[in-house]
Design a protein that fits this description.
single chain, binds adenosine monophosphate, 496 residues, Isoleucyl-tRNA Synthetase, Domain 1, Rossmann fold, 3 domains, alpha/beta, binds zinc ion, five-stranded parallel sheet, 15 strands, four-stranded antiparallel sheet
Length: 496
């Protein structure tokens, strides 16, 4: 049995999907206006572990993750600049280029951390029509009002607003009013109301662009304040951030889905608003299980560029640490506890991970030598117990820390090397530490990051069958004194 902590009910519940064995699962994805950092990594490793655990339990997972490439404002209260437009100005590029560049950066991070890519990845800007349709339904049902700044959702019309936070609408509004930093958009009826559609120009005034809801090309409209805007029944503008996830979740997975994940910061606003607008539109429960990962802090502080603690995988690598050692570090804490990243903890995780790989390499060698060892009844019982215990802890709200402890118990036990190896490979289906690819890591550690990146680039080119370009990269790698070895087990690189 699988138990998951559901933010909606504030307790651990037995998980069963609506239509077994199918599980419909939506993850809030990144806003692609800047580099992905190690805090994002924590949330997406958690979401990956959840997918793996579901599959381990023989569910068939249909998972969608969005890419937010429009509408996420610098203030969660519908004021401030669109993060994407801000990123474009910062780099003097088009918003579309910014989105493409940082989406690629994010995807590379997933690959490096051995995070499985969800079946469907969808961009907000590819689903504007669906968002407009949803807002239309809400308007027809009387949940919206229009002010100079845009079309808003009237939270007082949705009686269970805020349920995810455990607070009532009145309590939420009181809290917001008490908060000194809440900038209230002029004309908004209640502090909790949120934008469904924001106008590029006050009152939706349009400057003679298409009226069919199609994208207005940035190059055609260079004088506009915004690069990304679309026509809509209310006027030219862009969607609110929250409507994106509702529209895409409903489009790809249906009105009611089994699971929705994100960082804990999304509970009071983004997810609360997703629930309100989705349920108001469909009249059905939007999500059955909400799961949230707690945030990562760095040396006790929130990650920010000004504090110079905004770390990316690149920074981890530059200090000589492996990507998967970071994954190992994250697995040592429960996803629902806040985690503080320190370089000391990173060193400890790298050491433990190296040790695990060394031990496993030895086990792998012994396994072939001692192939014929027959298990005693007692040892067979132990193997079974390890497997049961691992399944139990992992099915207890994804307790990866306890799962890792069992991996170490297996390593230290007296069962045969063959059984140790098989058990650890089975557990790694969930942990995702890529332990089947283990090689002598002393050799691997001395391969510079630059070479590892070139190897990855070559693999990517080979994957898309760009053989000539891939070959050029191989020649470049060889020119730097390294040898590429391709085999059916994958590509290895060695000093020449
Ligand atoms: P964003 O790109 O800001 O929209 O965030 C994408 C996802 O990463 C969301 O689910 C956030 O909650 C999560 N996230 C952002 N910062 C952190 C952090 N410091 N620690 C953990 N998760 C984070
Ligand atoms: Zn979302």
């Amino acid at each position: 049995m699988l138990y998951l902590f559901n933010t909606l009910t504030h307790r651990k519940e037995e998980f069963t999907p609506l239509h077994p064995p199918l599980v419909t699962y939506y993850s809030c994805g990144p806003t692609v206006y800047d580099f992905a950092h190690i805090g994002h990594a924590r949330t997406f490793i958690f979401a990956d572990i959840l997918q793996r655990v579901l599959e381990f339990n023989n569910f068939k997972v249909k998972r969608v993750m969005n890419i937010t490439d429009v509408g996420h404002l610098t203030s969660d209260r519908d004021s401030g600049e669109d993060k994407m437009e801000k990123g474009a100005k910062r780099e003097n590029k088009s918003v579309w280029d910014i989105a493409e560049f940082y989406t690629q950066d994010f995807m590379l991070m997933l690959k490096r951390l051995n995070i499985q890519v969800p079946e469907t990845i969808c961009k907000a800007t590819d689903n504007i029509k669906e968002m407009i349709d949803l807002i239309n339904i809400l308007e027809k049902k009387g949940f919206t009002y229009q002010i100079a700044d845009g079309v808003y959702f009237n939270t007082s019309k949705f009686s269970s607003y805020g349920g995810l936070t455990g607070m009532t609408l009145l309590e939420l509004q009181k809290n917001l009013k008490a908060g000194s930093r809440v900038e209230m958009v002029e004309g908004k009826k209640h502090p909790t109301d949120f934008a469904l559609w924001k106008f590029s120009y006050p009152n939706g005034r349009s400057f003679g662009s298409p009226s069919n809801g199609l994208r207005v090309n940035a190059q055609d409209d260079v004088s506009s304040r915004r690069q990304m805007e679309w026509d809509s029944p209310w006027g030219k503008g862009f969607p609110g951030w929250h409507i994106e996830c509702s529209a895409m979740s409903m489009k790809y997975l249906g009105n009611t889905i089994d699971i929705h994940t994100g960082g804990a910061d999304h509970i009071p606003i983004h997810h609360t608003n997703e629930i309100a607008q989705s349920e108001a539109a469909s009249g059905k429960i939007f999500v059955r299980f909400w799961l949230h990962a707690q945030h990562l802090t760095v040396e006790g502080a929130k990650m920010s560029k000004s504090l110079h603690n905004f770390y990316r995988l690149k920074d981890i690598n530059e200090k000589g640490f492996d990507n998967l050692a970071l994954r190992y570090l994250y697995l040592t804490a429960h996803y629902r506890t806040a985690m503080n990243f320190t370089w000391k903890a990173m060193e400890g995780a790298q050491r433990a991970f190296d040790q695990l790989r060394r031990k496993l390499l030895k086990i792998k060698e012994q396994r072939t030598v001692n192939k014929k060892i027959i298990l005693s009844e007692e040892k067979r019982e132990k193997v079974k117990k390890f497997q049961q215990k691992f399944t139990e802890v992992i099915n207890d709200d994804l307790n990866t820390a306890a799962g890792l402890a069992i991996v170490w118990d297996v390593v230290k036990s007296d069962i045969t090397p063959g059984d140790k190896y098989d058990l650890i490979m089975l557990f790694d289906k969930i942990l995702g530490l890529d332990l089947s690819q283990i090689t002598d890591n002393r050799e691997q550690r001395t391969i510079p990051v630059e070479i590892k990146e070139l190897v990855e680039k070559r693999e990517e080119l080979r994957r898309v069958q760009k053989w000539d370009e891939a070959d050029k990269v191989r020649i470049e790698i060889e020119g730097k004194g390294f040898l590429i070895l391709d085999s059916k087990d994958g590509t290895k690189v060695k000093r020449n």
